[in-house]
Specification:
The complex is a heterodimer of chains A (about 230) and B (about 160). With about 230 residues, chain A is of the alpha/beta class. Chain A has seven helices and eleven strands. In chain A, the strands form two sheets. In chain A, strands 1, 2, 5, 6, 7, 8, 9, 10 and 11 form a nine-stranded mixed β-sheet that branches. In chain B, helix 2 runs parallel beside helix 3. The chains are: A alpha/beta (about 230), B alpha+beta (about 160).
C-alpha cells in the first residue's frame, strides 16, 4: 500500500497523524509507505492550527515525528511543492493520494494527472472558515468510477488562484483566517472516506459537505462525466 | 420558501430589456435571452402569479403560520409526501446544496425556478449547476417525482 499526502498544513498535519495511526495498527505486510509532500516551512504563525513539534520544513519534520511513533510504516519526506515537473515521480499507479492543499491549482494538477493513470484513489479536502468538503475520485482499470475533482467544480477546473511555487514570498506570508476545528473536520471526513473505500469497498460516494455552524453533513453520489475513458 | 420581492408592473414597464432579462435570470425564467419586452413582462407576471398560487396553497394545507416571520437557520426535514385535505398526496423531492438539504414540493417545477425560489434558504450561488439524480441538468429541466436535486456548492479552497 502506497499513500501520498500532498499538503501538510492545517488539514494535512492532523490527517497524517490519524491515517498513520490507523495503518500502523493494521500490521500490513509488506510494510506500507506514506509519502509526505510539502515545500512549506512550519513557523510560529502556524501554531494555532498545525501540529508540529519544531520549526522547519513540514514534510521532513512530520516524517521524523511519525517514524518515531509508528514503526510499522515507512515514511518518505518530499520537501518540495507538488508541480507539473515533479508530479510523475511523486504520484504513481495504484497509490492512494490525500490532497490537503490550500489552492485549486494543485487540486487540478493532481486530478488531471490522475486521468492518465489506470488505478488511483484521490481523496481531496478543503475548507473555508466554518464549512468544508471532501471529494473522492477513483479510477479503476482506466475508467472513472467517480467524478474527477474538476467534473462538477468549474472553480477547480479553471482555478484563479496560484500554486505555492508560483506565489511570491509576500503572497505566501498572507493567510486568510481559518479554524482548527474546521481543518480537523475535513481531516476526519478524509479518513472516513478512506475507511469506506478500503475497508468497506464503498465506491458510491463522490463528495461530502459539512457545516460547523448548522452541524450538518451531507454526502453526494454523482455520475462521472467521462465514463468510458479507458487509456 | 425564500421571499421574492414582487416588483410593481409600472416599475417593470420602465426597466430596459436588458434589466428585465437579468431579472428573468434571477427568477430562473428561461428562454428570455431573445424575447421581446412584452413577452418578458408577461413571463415575469406569470412567474409572480405562480408565486401567489404557491403561497395560497401552502396557507391552506400547511401548518398554522405565525404573523411575525422568523429566519430559519436550517431545514433538514425527513418527510417525502404529505397528505392534504383532499386526501391526495403532495410529493416532495429532496433539494440540497452543500451540507443543507430539505424536501420541497417542487415536482413539475424547473430547476431554474427552484434555484430562484430557494436561493436564500439553501445559500445557492447564482452560477451553481443543478444536478439531478447524480447528473448535470440545465435550468429548464422539469423535476419529476422521485428525483433528487442538488445544487453544486463550490469546493473549499483552503487547507
Amino acid at each position: 500500500m502506497e499513500i501520498t499526502i500532498v499538503g501538510l498544513g492545517g488539514i494535512g498535519s492532523v490527517l497524517s497523524n490519524m491515517i498513520s495511526r490507523y495503518i500502523n495498527s493494521k500490521n500490513i505486510n509488506p510494510r506500507p509507505c506514506i509519502k509526505l509532500v510539502d515545500g512549506d516551512s512550519y513557523e510560529e504563525k502556524n501554531f494555532e492550527r498545525q501540529e508540529f513539534s519544531r520549526f522547519g520544513n513540514k514534510a521532513s519534520i512530520k516524517a521524523q515525528e511519525l517514524s518515531l511513533k509508528f514503526r510499522n510504516i515507512s515514511f518518505i519526506d518530499v520537501p518540495e511543492y507538488l508541480g507539473s515537473n515533479s508530479i510523475s515521480s511523486i504520484i504513481q499507479e495504484n497509490s492512494i493520494v490525500f490532497v490537503s492543499v490550500d489552492n485549486h491549482k494543485t487540486r487540478k494538477l493532481v486530478s488531471d494527472y490522475a486521468k492518465n493513470l489506470n488505478n488511483i484513489i484521490i481523496i481531496s479536502g478543503g475548507n473555508e472558515l466554518t464549512d468544508g468538503n471532501v471529494q473522492i475520485y477513483i479510477r479503476k482499470e482506466g475508467v472513472d468510477v467517480s467524478p474527477s475533482l474538476t467534473d462538477y467544480h468549474p472553480e477547480i477546473d479553471n482555478p484563479i488562484d496560484k500554486s505555492p511555487d508560483q506565489k511570491s514570498c509576500e503572497e505566501l506570508s498572507v493567510s486568510e483566517p481559518q479554524l482548527y476545528f474546521t481543518n480537523c473536520m475535513v481531516a476526519v471526513f478524509m479518513c472516513a472516506s478512506f475507511y469506506n473505500i478500503i475497508e468497506k469497498q464503498n465506491y458510491k460516494l463522490s463528495e461530502v459537505y459539512f457545516d460547523l455552524l448548522t452541524m450538518n453533513a451531507n454526502s453526494k453520489t454523482r455520475v462521472p462525466k467521462n465514463k468510458n475513458n479507458r487509456i | 420558501m425564500a421571499k421574492i420581492k414582487i416588483i410593481d408592473a409600472e416599475i417593470l414597464e420602465k426597466k430596459t430589456v436588458l434589466e428585465l432579462r437579468e431579472l428573468c435570470k434571477k427568477y430562473g425564467i428561461i428562454g428570455m435571452s431573445k424575447a421581446r419586452k412584452d413577452d418578458i413582462l408577461e413571463s415575469i407576471s406569470d412567474f409572480y402569479d405562480s408565486l401567489e398560487e404557491d403561497k395560497e396553497e401552502s396557507c391552506c394545507s400547511g401548518p398554522v403560520q405565525s404573523k411575525g416571520s422568523q429566519k430559519v437557520p436550517f431545514i433538514n426535514a425527513g418527510l417525502h409526501s404529505t397528505l392534504n385535505k383532499q386526501d391526495s398526496y403532495d410529493t416532495t423531492i429532496s433539494i440540497s446544496c452543500g451540507a443543507s438539504s430539505f424536501n420541497g414540493p417542487v415536482v413539475g417545477k424547473t430547476v431554474g425556478y427552484v434555484k430562484a425560489v430557494y436561493r436564500e434558504i439553501l445559500n445557492i450561488e447564482v452560477d451553481s449547476t443543478g444536478v439531478v439524480n447524480g447528473g448535470s441538468v440545465s435550468d429548464s429541466y422539469v423535476l419529476k417525482s422521485c428525483d433528487t436535486l442538488e445544487f453544486i456548492r463550490k469546493a473549499g479552497s483552503k487547507g
